[in-house]
Amino acid sequence: MLKPALLVLISAVSVSPLLLANADANYHSDSTSTSTSTSTSTSTSTPISTSTLRLTPTQNSVLTSSLNSTPAINSSEESVQSSLYPREPIAEKSALICRISDYAKCLAQFPVAVTRQLPSHNDIANSLGFKSAVVFPVNNENVAGLIVINRVLPLIYQNVALNGQIYQLDLAQQSQLTLWHEIGHLQNIALQGKGLPSELTAYEHEWLADVYLVWRLAQSDSLILAWQQLHRRNMAVINDRDNISHWSSPQLLWLLTHYSLEEIKQFEHYSDFISAIYPLSPSIETTEMKEIASLIQRTFNRGVMPVLPNYMFWRQVRLIEVLQPTLSILMGDENANQWLIEQFAEAPTYFDAKY
Asked: Crossing angle for the helix pair 286-300 and 313-331, nearest 10 degrees?
């Protein structure tokens, strides 16, 4: 049994390396006003310059969300009252999507049995901080959970500093991706014991939510933003190893290199898709995760400490494989490969095998 409202799953990563738009309460709004919090961790003490990457904006503007689809809900006392707040079908239930500014009104849409499982407005506001959204699963025959959208939206670009140069990745449709990630949490909870294991780790919940995001993007006829999500997760963990809790890049890379858009689209229902791919998806055990986090810290946030090419050599190939596509996008193939060779003793062997 899921413990009511105790499973709080946050989609946003640590804010310090990210640049946030000061959007209004409407999570679909576009804002050009930004705050400028930039990570400055570098491998050398050379002056910092800036390089900017933009991902084909004409192809990134095609996504919309069918947020106003309202599933049939039992008309008993425990049902969700009719409202203008968007609902998302989750198996035989539904989830309400609510702006933080409307939280009290959203609670009024729920039966008492649900509101008792949800925190107060102040508790949610404090837990959100600068994060984009939070999801609260609940135990109810009709309600799967509540997704609360923050005022501070969306991420509009992300920076990473390497060898004294800041590389910037512009982010498109990030509020939509965040919303689908949160919906993915609830979809996967609904499938535990029905295509997914009955017990999932916190890390599995995170990467599986991004897998749902990929499936949802495929239904919109494009996987471009799935690659953006992979790069964003990589850049976040480079900036702060604590973001490894949300590091879905190993699984996303595997998925995007083993399945085409058309192959994913063939799965009309997410439940069929996740049942097919979950047993094949790469897993990362706790020990490996800790060692990769240590390797990331030593590589990207070592300050004035010297390069140690043999450090954690047994984990280097896994890290090189996952980071290389992102570094290539930011730095170019030749520069990225050369940089990796300078950092990791196992890189030449990896590239010899790959090419």
From this structure: 50
- Rounded Cα distance, 176 and 183, in Å: 11
Mean pLDDT of 235-249: 96
The helix (run of H) or strand (run of E) holding residue 137 is strand 133-137
- Rounded (5°) CA angle 229-353-321: 20
Last residue of some domain: 283, 312, 331? 283
Do 194 and 305 have their domain in common? no
Please indicate, yes or no, whether residues 149 and 173 belong to a single structural domain of this protein. Answer: yes
Name the percent of the chain in helix, strand, coil, to the closest 5: 45, 15, 40
Domain total in the chain: 2
One domain, residues 170 and 79: yes
Which token pair is 83?
A: 């409202």
Fill in the amino acid letter for 126.
N
**Structural domain range at position 241:** 9-283
Cβ atoms of residues 167 and 331 within 8 Å: yes
Whether 185 maps to a domain, the answer reads yes
Phi–psi pair at 239, nearest 5 degrees: -70, -35
Could you give the CA distance from residue 229 to residue 243 in angstroms, rounded to a whole number? 14
Chain-centroid distance of CA 102 in Å reads 24
Residue pointed to by tokens 């997760």? 233
Residue where a domain stops, chosen among 283, 310, 344: 283
**What letter would DSSP give residue 154?**
-
**pTM (2 decimals)?**
0.78
Q: Which amino acid is located at 294 in the chain?
A: S
Task: Give the pLDDT confidence score for residue 84 in this predicted structure.
Answer: 56
Same domain, 90 and 225: yes
Q: Answer yes or no: do 59 and 166 share one domain.
A: yes
44-87 tens-digit pLDDT? 333 343 344 544 333 333 333 332 332 222 333 333 343 457 89
Identify whether the C-beta of residue 228 lies closer than 8 Å to the C-beta of residue 172. yes
Same domain (yes/no): 295, 278: no
Rounded CA gap, 18 and 136, in Å? 24
pLDDT tens per residue across span 106-132 = 999 999 999 999 999 889 888 788 788
